[in-house]
Specification:
This protein has 358 residues and is mostly helical. It folds into two domains: 2-94, no CATH class; 106-347, no CATH class. Helices cover 63% and strands 3% of the residues. The protein contains 16 helices and three strands. The protein has helices spanning 2-14, 18-40, 47-65, 67-88, 98-102, 113-131, 141-157, 182-187, 212-223, 229-241, 246-267, 269-276, 281-295, 300-315, 329-337, 343-347; strands at residues 177-178, 192-195, 200-203. It has a three-stranded mixed beta sheet. Helix 7 crosses helix 10 (229-241). It is globular and about 65 Å long.
Length: 358
């Protein structure tokens, strides 16, 4: 039992060693990512979920047959899982945040209400332009997910190198997996998750498909070392907006609008009605379908999930906890001000709605 405690404590302590965090960012994560993708990246079925089921089953059998002998093994397994979490992923929470790469000068000023409304209007027009392209959400789940995954990956290639959390551009990441427990994710109000022990990205296959592109982008941003939720959200949307796939691009436009719309709803509801009038009917229907899906699945499980997630994020050094999911507005504002991303040009009505084809 002491071995398990020691392993967990060692893993937790390693996050406080700056030299180790920097080694992990520059060397550890790239090497580990390449290894995990070589072992678990091929195919479309989650190895991580299968491993969890097998491990839990073995521990339950051991505890049932030999309760006293099984407890030490349970403690060791728990400690080993905690240690491997920090070795594979937990240290990434200590990487420098995305805001320092967007704005090296440290400009993190909040936008005014006028600016928020302006950006919301521009992103609504971007959604309208994106909706006029040949977007296609049809087809079997596996085929659709493969197409979205390819489009997002192509978008990440176009993101400037200086925004990478870790130098892992040479790693070929496996396809995002549809979770076998999507029904549970829905009840827990989760659109996807990253499994660090195998390096696999998963999405909730039950949610509306309009959310799939930005969720795939979010989880694949985690694969690349963007541990903070707001960082992963913004990088995922940027990857979608850099993609030449019209459906992926449309999903990214929805994600960008949603970020500004959430803030406008908080500060000026009257202005928000005017902004929504700029959206095409299709986008309004898509947002309403997304909202209805999650509303139907609210409940005690979702509340417990949020509290657990809040505690987990704070334990990893994210002081705002689950509130960090919504702290994307400033990052998007910094992205608009960053000329390398060309996001400002994309938001202006005269700019082309699509990036250049591959």
């Amino acid at each position: 039992m002491l071995v398990g405690i020691a392993l967990a404590a060692l893993g937790r302590a390693s996050a406080s060693w700056p030299w180790l965090v920097e080694w992990h960012r520059n060397t550890g994560l790239p090497v580990l990512s390449a290894f995990l993708q070589a072992v678990f990246g091929a195919g479309e079925t989650s190895r991580g979920e299968a491993a969890v089921v097998l491990l839990v089953a073995l521990l339950l059998v051991l505890l049932f047959r030999r309760p006293r002998a099984g407890l030490p093994y349970l403690a060791i397994a728990t400690g080993l899982v905690a240690f491997l979490f920090y070795a594979t992923w937990g240290l990434a929470y200590r990487y420098s945040p995305l805001t320092t790469r967007f704005s090296p000068s440290g400009d993190i000023s909040r936008p005014s209400v006028t600016e928020l409304v302006q950006f919301a209007e521009q992103s609504a027009r971007l959604v309208a332009r994106a909706a006029s392209a040949s977007i296609d959400f049809s087809g079997p789940d596996d085929e659709f997910l493969r197409r979205i995954d390819r489009g997002v990956e192509a978008g990440f290639v176009r993101v400037p190198l200086e925004l990478d959390a870790s130098p892992i551009r040479q790693v070929a990441f496996g396809q995002t997996r549809p979770s076998r427990v999507s029904f549970a994710l829905s009840r827990l109000q989760l659109s996807g998750y990253y499994f660090p022990w195998t390096g696999e990205a998963h999405i909730n296959a039950q949610m509306p498909r309009t959310q799939w592109p930005r969720t795939v982008g979010h989880e694949k941003a985690h694969q690349r070392g963007h541990a903070r939720e707001n960082d992963a959200t913004v990088m995922g949307v940027l990857a979608c907006l850099k993609s030449s796939d019209p459906t992926v691009f449309y999903g990214g436009a929805l994600g960008l609008f949603a970020a500004f719309d959430r803030e406008v709803a908080r500060v000026d509801r009257a202005a928000r009605r005017g902004v929504w009038a700029l959206l095409p009917a299709r986008a309004v229907q898509d947002f309403e379908a997304e909202s209805a899906f999650w509303r139907l699945r609210e409940g005690v499980a979702a509340e417990v999930s949020e509290r657990v997630n809040d505690t987990y994020l704070k334990a990893q050094g994210v002081q705002s906890g689950v509130a960090s999911y919504g702290e994307t507005t400033i990052l998007f504002l910094q992205a608009i001000r960053n000329p390398r991303l060309q996001l400002a040009e994309l938001l202006t009505p005269a700019s082309p709605p699509r990036p250049e084809p591959e």
